[in-house]
């Protein structure tokens, strides 16, 4: 595969081929989201990391003003408990919704996030394709 | 006698015959000349060595191609994008990364004749990325005290500072250095080989040596130095949290400084700007129109 095709695919993954996060989040209600999870995968923290890598670039691309904060905690000790949550922040910066992401796949986390947050799916013709 | 079927390799219990036959065993030229005509041997293909003239022609072709590329319009490149859309992709690619790693940088290829001195200069950004760290070398203690009071200097000192840098006790983490003429000979003799390649050695030609350090620093404090390396210039021009307008203003400032350094270049034929890409720490490289 040529370098250019590979690069185009990379751009299209952000703007076109990843369907689930192609939504417009109601900007009048929400300021941003905050995710807290471990750097390490153990204790069911893989889902949020995959959510960050797979879905958040597209969510940010279609919602440029949505503030996305990620707090990753180093924790080598498996006995220690680190929060694994997604917080939805309103305009004043207060948490309005909290989603527990522990032991869950990125797809199910995204479904619950979209259920809890007011949004509009972007029609196919408005999507950006490179 | 050496033949290509003399040793049977063991290949993890796979279909050995097929694998074995398809693998050719090439003899070295010396070995081939020693063997008899009965055995099946494959002669080693000689390595193609280009003559001096061929090498010259190859280099010329490469140079002409890069020159033709430089004349090409930015929109001819398949990954061309206008700056706001490029920034939108870069911001998306950088989501959730630590703030220190979200730098947007600009890389431009320089096409110049052989032997042309590399481009260098200073850019004064309307929105700087960070405060530039300044080091001042002088034997005049009073002058240094005065400068320390007026400006937030990273390092300031005389012979003891030079000795510290030479021993490795003091890190070279400053972006700019200024000096007074009384210390410059010691500085060049002791640290010329250390600071020179990093581009932070005070030099009369560069205009970083003066008795009047106050005005010199006030003129140069808000600027960012750049230098051509490996036929390209790479500059950090912003962070992803900068607005589009701020980044575009910084790009315009960078273009102005680079073009100025081209016009002041001491060469028969001036260098040309070729493909310019906008990229970020974790993002893709996108071609933008820089001319």
Automatic annotation (TrEMBL), chain A:
Where's it found, cell-wise?
Mitochondrion
User: What is this protein's name?
Assistant: Similar to Saccharomyces cerevisiae YKL167C MRP49 Mitochondrial ribosomal protein of the large subunit, not essential for mitochondrial translation
Tell me the lineage of the source organism. Answer: Eukaryota, Fungi, Dikarya, Ascomycota, Saccharomycotina
Q: Is DNA damage among the key words of this record? A: no
Taxonomy, superkingdom: Eukaryota
**Organism per entry:** Maudiozyma barnettii
GO CC list: mitochondrion; ribonucleoprotein complex; ribosome
Q: What is its main location?
A: mitochondrion
InterPro entries recorded:
Ribosomal_mL43/mS25/NADH_DH, Ribosomal_mS25/mL61
Q: Which keywords has UniProt assigned to this entry?
A: Mitochondrion, Ribonucleoprotein, Ribosomal protein
Question: Ribosomal protein/NADH dehydrogenase domain location, by residue?
Answer: 41-120
This protein's record includes keyword Ribonucleoprotein: yes
The GO molecular function terms of this record are: structural constituent of ribosome
TrEMBL record, chain B:
Record-level GO cellular component terms: mitochondrial large ribosomal subunit
InterPro entries listed in its UniProt record: Ribosomal_uL1, Ribosomal_uL1-like, Ribosomal_uL1/biogenesis, Ribosomal_uL1_3-a/b-sand, Ribosomal_uL1_CS
Gene3D superfamilies noted in UniProt: 3.30.190.20, 3.40.50.790
Superkingdom as given in the UniProt entry:
Eukaryota
Q: Does the keyword Ribonucleoprotein apply?
A: yes
Which biological process, per GO, is one annotated for this protein?
A: translation
Q: Which PROSITE patterns match?
A: RIBOSOMAL_L1
Keywords recorded for this protein, A-Z: Ribonucleoprotein, Ribosomal protein
Which is an annotated GO molecular function term of this record?
Answer: structural constituent of ribosome
Q: Which family does it belong to?
A: Belongs to the universal ribosomal protein uL1 family.
Q: What is this protein called?
A: Ribosomal protein
Q: Which organism is it from?
A: Maudiozyma barnettii
